Amino acid sequence: MSKKWKHAIVIGASGGIGEALVYELAKEGVSVGLVARRGSELERVALKARTISGPSTTHNHQPAPKFIPFIHDVTNYSEVPALLQEITKQLGGLDLVIYNSGIMPPIAKDEYNFAKDKSIIEVNLLGAFAWLNEAAMRFQNAECGTIVGISSIAGERGRRGMPAYMTSKAALSTYLESLRNRLSQHGVKVVTIKPGVIDTAMAKDSPNKLWLYSPEDAAHEIIGAARRGVTVKYVPWKWRMISFILHSLPSFIFRRLSF
Amino acid sequence: MSVLPIDHLEKIEGWGGAVSSFGYVYRPATVEGLREVFELARRSNRNITFRGSGRSYGDAALGAENIVLDTSRMNRILSWDPNSGIITMEPGVTIEQLWQYIIEDGWWPPVVSGTMYPTVGGCLGMNIHGKNNFKAGPIGEHVLSFDIMLPSGEIKTATPDSESELFYSAISGFGMFGVFTSITMQMKKVYSGLLHVKAWTTKNLHELFEIYQQHIPGSDYLVGWVDCISSDEKLGRSIVHQANYFKPGEDQNPAQSLRVSNQSLPNTILGIFPKSFVWMLLRPFTNNAGMKFINWLRVFVSRLPVVGKPVYEQSHAEFAFLLDYVPGWKKSYGQGGLIQYQSFIPKESAEKVFRKQIEMCQEAGLPPYLGVFKQHKPDKFLFTHSVDGFSLALDFKVTEKNREKLWSLCAKMNDVVLANGGRFYFAKDATLRPQDFKAFLGEETLKKFAELKKRYDPENILQTDLSRRLVL
User: Fold this and answer.
1) Domain B77-189, CATH among 3.30.465.10, 3.90.660.10, 3.30.43.10, 3.40.50.2300
2) Chain B: residue nearest A82 by CA?
3) What is the domain partition of chain B in residue ranges?
4) Count of domains for chain A
């Protein structure tokens, strides 16, 4: 059987890295189910993806790839099992699931806001559980498939900034590692992506613009890593060094750092 | 929409292993169970694909994300009359079960495929033919009646005379109208468990046509194996095998030769190699150089005065089920599997078309590793693949690398077939394009198809990967 991916779902596809991932997959002729809350944005992305993929020429026996938008709020957890099956049915199969949904509401230096923290965990973490548990069950039965979780370098250590956001990403990374350890024996790949600062709407609120990276380049690297079945991928790679340094810092120094 | 339990999800491959998809497989054992699957499909808003033993080479029994209704557990023989040779069975009965059930009473299925593992239901859906198609027609011509469950749950009985439209479209209709629940067929009387077999080698394709046609009048079965690797004046050199039934009284002890144990295929090859390992021995040869050697060896051996004995006796099973000689032989083709390309060409242009096809394959660097040649006659079934002419079936190894090239080679061969009024066979196909499907069936048949689909499956529940590839 051909190892080429044919069918993918991108959750959080209406902008940012998710949008760029859809285009990257479109270039390779992969059909994509696009999931997000904002219907009009999804339509825009789907439309552009169709122009990128163009009419099917290389596979004259294959129908043209499909880009189908599905409006869904990732905190509507109970919708997920039926929706995943419906998307898979409409695509005609499933090889790749990317969980990219994430929020980072601005938090002041001395702000403690449970409502914000709760919504961060609901979107960044519980939504991932809802989607990726379902994906894991399917792939475990199918004995193949690739799961990609977009985590963040923000989850490496608990810095002063956004406690809940960093916690959500640290937890997501740990969850993905667990999935990987569960699923590798079934031939399923689980890839953890740790982007640095990517030039998206989310980054506008970020005070830190170190090594600002374009979503297109990020998407290209992410899909490449997923294809190779890399376990953990920093985007760009330089963040791996920073991560190493961060992990090596003892607390008495780390708590004095201002970022 | 109700969610289907994930543990029913299975990867399903076409028999050739070159195409696959995932489906939710259900294997009901009763007619009531069939009805429940139709209801489940409605509740979960899914399509249904029928599957028997999954012996179609391509995607005829695949249905991506569909409910795949596997009939292999519905395999009871419902009645058998050894005086008249009339048998009634469920659709999941295999050809193997069938011949083993009837042979000791002196009967043999009138039409069998080159392997004994397909189900009778699947054989009807594809309206299969055997090495006796020129004489016996397709399997459908030996069906006296069948019961079929439509997607509505209604069961209809069809014979050539009543509900004849359903009869002539469900047989050959590649599972697009309903699922057979009971099939009644007329078996063929035989007076021995053996057949007289004769073989001739031919120097090239032209001689194949000559020798084959010369022997047609005196043959019950006639088939040609074609070497598609040799070229120029040796292009299409072949071995023709003829098999004829024994006349009454010719076999002194028919009870013995008709015993199932005397029909079985040998367990070892050349008395040494256990058969279940033989595909591994073949593996190093499934490449262009290796197959060239194998083909040379076959022709060489067939010409040896003693070993290549041109006249001998063989049991029905040995002659009919050549494909079952080496269990798992398709595994020797490796990971990418194989496809078979079979086209059916009217008499006048067959030789020209087959020569052209073999040349095209060789030019593309994709020589077929097996070629099988047969004569056919037209039949009345709506989606028939048969013509008044000949067919050549070509086996190709599929790899990740040659896939794209192979599919476009098939597309080019399709154009040649269609330009000469040829036809195709859904049991084999994996590469036809929608335009090929339309061209070979013709507008009138397509209109009829749409009309029948509306009548018997108005919700369009019954779909396969093949139907989605071609009918849309």
Assistant:
1) 3.30.465.10
2) B3
3) 6-71+453-470, 77-189, 194-424
4) 1
For residue B317, give the nearest of B53, B143, B15, B103 by alpha carbon: B103
Give dist(CA A6, CA A86) in Å, integer. 16
The answer to whether position A1 is within a domain reads no
Predicted complex ipTM: 0.90
Closest CA to B169 of B202, B235, B209, B124: B124
Question: Is A187 touching B (CB cutoff 8 A)?
Answer: no
pLDDT digits (tens, 9 = 90+) for B91-149: 999 999 999 999 999 999 999 999 999 999 999 999 999 999 999 999 999 999 999 99
Is the residue at A81 inside a domain?
Answer: yes
Tokens of A105: 């509401």
Chain A residues touching B3 at Cβ < 8 A: 81-82, 85
> Which CATH number goes with the domain that contains A116?
3.40.50.720
Closest-CA distance of chain B to residue A119, Å: 28
Q: What is the CATH number that goes with domain B6-71+453-470?
A: 3.30.43.10
For residue B401, the one-letter residue type is K
Residue of B nearest to A90 (CA): B65
Residues in chain B: 472
Per the CB < 8 A criterion, the answer to whether A168 and A118 are in contact is: no
- Alpha-carbon gap, residue B358 to B363, rounded angstroms: 9
Instruction: List the domain range (segments joined by +) for residue A139.
Output: 7-254
- Burial of B285 from C-beta contacts in 10 A (0-12 / 13-18 / 19+): middle
B308 pLDDT exceeds 80?
no
With an 8 Å Cβ cutoff, the interface of chain B facing chain A consists of 1-4, 6-7, 9, 11, 13, 17, 20-22, 46, 64-65, 335, 400, 403-404, 407-408, 411, 431, 433, 469, 472
In this complex, the residue of A3, A60, A138 whose CB is nearest that of residue B6 is: A138
Closest residue in chain A to residue B435, using alpha carbons only? A61
**Does residue A206 lie within any of the structural domains?**
yes
SS3 call for B166: helix
Packing angle, helices B347-363 and B205-215, rounded to 10: 150
Instruction: For domain B194-424, give the CATH number.
Output: 3.40.462
**Residue B9 and residue A138: Cβ atoms within 8 Å?**
yes
pLDDT 10s per residue in chain A (259 long)? 346 899 999 999 999 999 999 999 999 999 999 999 999 999 999 999 999 987 654 445 567 899 999 999 999 999 999 999 999 999 999 999 999 999 999 999 899 999 999 999 999 999 999 999 999 999 999 999 999 999 999 999 998 889 999 999 999 999 999 999 999 999 999 999 999 988 888 877 676 778 888 999 999 999 999 999 999 999 999 999 999 998 899 999 988 887 7
A125 inside domain: yes
Q: How far is CA A7 from the centre of its chain?
A: 16
Cβ-defined contact of A82 to B3 (cutoff 8 Å): yes
